[in-house]
From TrEMBL:
InterPro entries linked: Coa3_CC (IPR018628)
One Pfam family matching this protein: Coa3_cc
Source organism per UniProt: Miscanthus lutarioriparius
UniProt keyword Disulfide bond, yes or no: no
Transmembrane helix found in the keyword field: yes
Membrane-spanning residues: 12-31
Keywords, alphabetical: Membrane, Transmembrane, Transmembrane helix
Ranges where the Cytochrome c oxidase assembly factor 3 mitochondrial coiled-coil domain occurs: 10-35
PANTHER family membership: CYTOCHROME OXIDASE ASSEMBLY PROTEIN
Name the record gives this protein: Cytochrome c oxidase assembly factor 3 mitochondrial coiled-coil domain-containing protein
Length: 65
């Protein structure tokens, strides 16, 4: 890495800052894709709400007859 040491201090700081920023953004992007890829909890909530509505409709029809 002799080439890196020959750069001016300000330039070295910019190179390091760019590398760190790229790493942090990469980790953030990967994490958001891994976590937000599937929304299993929301799917389960939607199914539960649908079952609740069907059960309420069935109970109101049975009670009204």
């Amino acid at each position: 890495m002799a080439g890196f040491r020959s750069l001016a201090p300000k330039t070295r700081n910019l190179v390091v800052a760019g590398g760190l920023s790229a790493f942090v953004l990469g980790v953030y992007y990967y994490t958001m894709r891994a976590v937000g890829g599937t929304d299993e909890l929301q799917v389960a909530i939607d199914k539960f709400e649908e079952m609740k509505k069907k059960d309420a409709a069935r109970n109101s029809n049975a009670g009204g007859s």
